[in-house]
Amino acid sequence: MAVKIQTKLGEISLENEVIATVVGGAATDNYGVVGMASKNQIRDNINDILKKESYSKGVIVRQEDNIVAVDVYIIVLYGTKISEICRNVQIQVKYNLETMLGFSAEKVNVFVQGVRVLND
Known about the structure:
Elements: E1 3-7, E2 10-14, H1 16-28, E3 33-36, H2 41-44, E4 59-64, E5 67-77, H3 82-101, E6 107-116
Parallel strand pairs: 5-6
Antiparallel strand pairs: 1-2, 3-5, 4-5
Helix pairs in contact: 1-3
């Protein structure tokens, strides 16, 4: 399913993989985010951090009428404030969607799938 945006010149169709790449890049650029997680960890049998090619497994895009909602599944760093990380991810995802793709998400839901300790 693609997100369709109506403009005065016609209709623009954006595939979910494109949106997932932009959303995943915005989410992982925030301090405290270790990486993206799969939305269906049991079904996908994935307990690891997703790579850039697999960001679409950690992002759900829904469109109802002209309202776009995005769900982002992340793994956070141990010892960081989760609520602050989620708020920063929401802000960054909305900003990147508006500047890079030209549409805004009405809702950005962030789901923390796990907490990791990074070994130095």
